[in-house]
From TrEMBL, chain A:
The gene is RABF1. PANTHER family: PTHR47978. Keywords: Nucleotide-binding. It comes from the Eukaryota. This is Ras-related protein RABF1.
Automatic annotation (TrEMBL), chain B:
Residues 345-444 form the FUZ/MON1/HPS1 third Longin domain. Residues 1-25, 315-334 are annotated as: Disordered. Plays an important role in membrane trafficking through the secretory apparatus. Residues 33-154 form the FUZ/MON1/HPS1 first Longin domain. It comes from Platanthera guangdongensis. Belongs to the MON1/SAND family. InterPro entries: FUZ/MON1/HPS1_longin_1 (IPR043972), FUZ/MON1/HPS1_longin_2 (IPR043971), FUZ/MON1/HPS1_longin_3 (IPR043970), Mon1 (IPR004353). This is Vacuolar fusion protein MON1 homolog.
Length: 200, 459
């Protein structure tokens, strides 16, 4: 968490991030986006990414170490393509101080919690605050309640999460990496909310 | 007791959180080898068996024993209680304890505790000590979340991986030119600012290059490869993770780019810069294309299939062959042709090159074909190693030991150490002759089984 103090302004942030390549290529038809997933350990960040990128679901839990890097390109209806460069970060406490390494310069942050775990919802709120303080000012944020298939064990109501997301001004969706429910919708919705870079 | 508790009491292999047993349960007490890590205030940090939080009373007792002796101005190292040995290691605010009835020498167990501590530093660095300076009652367990598999895999390796007591690494056998081709491309990326570049196949080195003046200790290689091999997520996709090499710099994180090229072959690129990911990724793409074009990866697969050195292949002349005792006397030539093991009843050997910090060991084969027998052999070697390197009465040059299980022979010179196991009925003079042959054979093959040049160890 000490890392935050060493980030004085946006330009320095970009220089010292895992972002030595431009955020989005100049070609307005082919957009490249750095996306980071944050959230407590065990909420299913890696499962969401693997479902999105490879269409797979592996029920055995594999703890992520540091961060995994994966890419996936989607085509939008207006014939633009968006290439997501995804940083799937580890949820363990020891990596919290290192998170800025991965979210600096990210255009999109997906904050994930588990709908059966109120603790993970609180942790998600911590990450939102962290991103508001230290993330890029124009970052697109999404709040994701994962494990929606386990609705019988639900302990975080969709309404509560929706209200919180609205207050912050972020996009909210519930997903299930297991059933693939809403996974593609999540990334499509994110694509629509990207700032129009070609105009700038 | 709920039914869940009862079912968790059953011994199980690495599935989920070990169990919820505590020190009162019979199954927990029956375990042959326990490892504990605790803080200087007695808080549990890690336990091989049982749930840490249930062992607070037990670790508090261990802490009381350690601090009682410390208050007397002394250090506790070792206690024997009946069949059990209790070995202690104090590392600043972190205490490590092994309780074992495996009859391993206490120096060997202490070496294992050192590695366990090193593995902790790989994950957290030594700066964790500062947390205890700030808060004596600091709880370290949350910081180790999700790393149980790393520790259980390390502890398991104490019974199968000779690198844990030899402090040397081993290479995958490869043609000299193949290893050179891999070394050349790794050297190129190191010249572009990478600190270490390692190409590994499981725990064996294919090639390895370090920046100028940067040397990689074999223990760090062991801990790093154990960390990578026991963490499944590295196999899923390319990863970038902070990692500490305790022998290189225990206080700082390096940044490791890890990528699996094949099922068991992986590339590790270490950098001191946290923003080097894209550079390391480019390096990997470059390395991968060279390795594919020059068929290094194909050769690696072939070597894995062929296996390493076999005792049956030790070259001997006919005089030795006819002298060698048949394990089943009276069965004549037929038995000789299909005899078990190598010449003169040689079952297994390990050759460690002192200058290279590398070892080579023969493949385990009949009659050492159960994991129990292999574990026993490694424990016997370990005992031999400790007795040969005894600081008070050693070091020794040769040792010949016969018991009901094997003849063990150890020979140490300034250049190499040889550990060999023979049939318990093997002839002593013949065994010594065979050991000479093995050494000659290894020297003849050294270009294929060892890594030369480009390595941080060659000056």
């Amino acid at each position: 968490m000490g890392c935050a103090a060493s980030v004085p302004d946006k330009s320095a942030r970009q220089a010292s991030s895992l972002n030595s390549e431009p955020l989005a290529a100049n070609d307005p038809k082919h957009i490249r986006v750095k996306l980071v997933l944050l959230g407590d350990s065990g909420v299913g960040k890696s499962c969401i990414v693997l479902r999105f990128v490879r269409g797979q679901f592996d029920p055995t839990s594999k703890v992520t170490v540091g961060a995994s890097f994966l890419c996936q390109t989607i085509a939008l209806q207006n014939s633009t393509t968006v290439k997501f460069e995804i940083w799937d970060t580890a949820g363990q406490e020891r990596y919290a101080a290192l998170a800025p390494l991965y979210y600096r310069g990210a255009a999109v942050a997906v904050v994930v919690y588990d709908i059966t775990s109120p603790d993970s919802f609180h942790k998600a709120q911590y990450w939102v605050k962290e991103l508001q303080k230290h993330g890029s000012p124009d970052i697109v944020m999404a709040l994701v309640g994962n494990k929606a298939d386990l609705h019988e064990n639900r302990r975080v109501s969709a309404q509560e999460a929706e209200e919180y997301a609205e207050k912050i001004g972020m996009f909210f969706i519930e997903t299930s990496a297991k059933t693939a429910d809403n996974i593609n919708q999540l990334f499509e919705e994110i694509s629509k909310r990207l700032p129009q870079r070609q105009s700038s | 007791m709920t039914s869940r508790d009862r079912c968790d009491d059953e011994p199980e292999k690495g599935k989920g959180k070990k169990n919820v047993t505590d020190d009162a349960s019979v199954s927990w007490r029956k375990r042959k080898k326990h490892f504990f890590v605790l803080s200087h205030s007695g808080k549990p940090i890690y336990s091989r068996y049982g749930a840490e939080h249930k062992l607070a009373g037990f670790t508090a007792t261990l802490q009381a024993i350690i601090s009682y002796v410390e208050n007397g101005g002394d250090n506790i190292r070792f206690v024997r209680a009946g069949k059990h040995q209790v070995v202690f290691l104090v590392k600043g605010p972190i205490y490590l304890v092994c309780i074992s009835c495996t009859e391993e020498p206490d120096d060997a167990l202490r070496g294992q505790l050192e590695l366990l501590h090193g593995q902790m530093l790989v994950i957290l660095t030594k700066s964790i000590d500062r947390c205890f300076e700030k808060n004596k009652k600091f709880d370290m367990t949350p910081l180790l979340g999700g790393t149980e598999a790393v520790f259980s895999s390390l502890i398991h390796s104490f019974s199968w991986n000779p690198a844990t007591f030899l402090h040397a690494y081993t290479c995958l056998p490869l043609a000299f030119s193949t290893r050179q081709a891999a070394g050349a491309i790794l050297q190129d990326v190191v010249d572009s600012g990478v600190l270490f570049a390692m190409l590994m196949c499981k725990h064996k080195v294919v090639s390895l290059v370090g920046a100028q003046k940067a040397s990689l200790h074999p223990d760090d290689m062991l801990l790093l490869s154990n960390f990578i091999l026991s963490t499944k997520s590295f196999r899923t996709s390319e990863s970038f993770s902070p990692i500490c090499l305790p022998r290189y710099n225990p206080m700082a994180f390096l940044h490791a780019y890890v990528h699996y090229l094949e099922v068991d072959s992986y590339l590790v690129l270490l950098s001191i810069n946290s923003d080097d990911f894209y550079h390391l990724k480019d390096c990997r793409i470059q390395i991968e294309s060279v390795l594919v074009n020059s068929n290094v990866l194909g050769e690696v697969q072939k070597s894995v299939q062929d296996g390493g050195l076999h005792v049956e292949d030790v070259p001997v002349d006919s005089s030795l062959r006819s002298d060698s005792p048949s394990p089943h006397p009276g069965q004549g030539r037929a038995a000789l042709a299909s005899r078990i093991g190598g010449p003169a009843g040689l079952w297994h050997f390990i050759y460690r090159s002192i200058n290279l910090d590398q070892y080579v060991s023969s493949e385990l084969s009949s009659p050492l074909n159960s994991s129990r027998l292999q574990k026993e052999l490694y424990r016997a070697y370990q005992k031999l190693y400790v007795s040969m390197h005894d600081r008070q009465i050693g070091p020794h040059k040769t040792q010949f030991r016969r018991d009901e299980s094997y003849v063990l022979l150890c020979w140490i010179t300034p250049d190499f150490e040889l550990y060999a196991a023979f049939d318990p009925l093997a002839d002593k003079a013949l065994a010594i002759k065979i050991c000479n042959r093995v050494c000659q054979w290894v020297r003849d093959l050294e270009n294929e089984i060892f890594l030369f040049g480009g390595s941080p160890f060659s000056w």
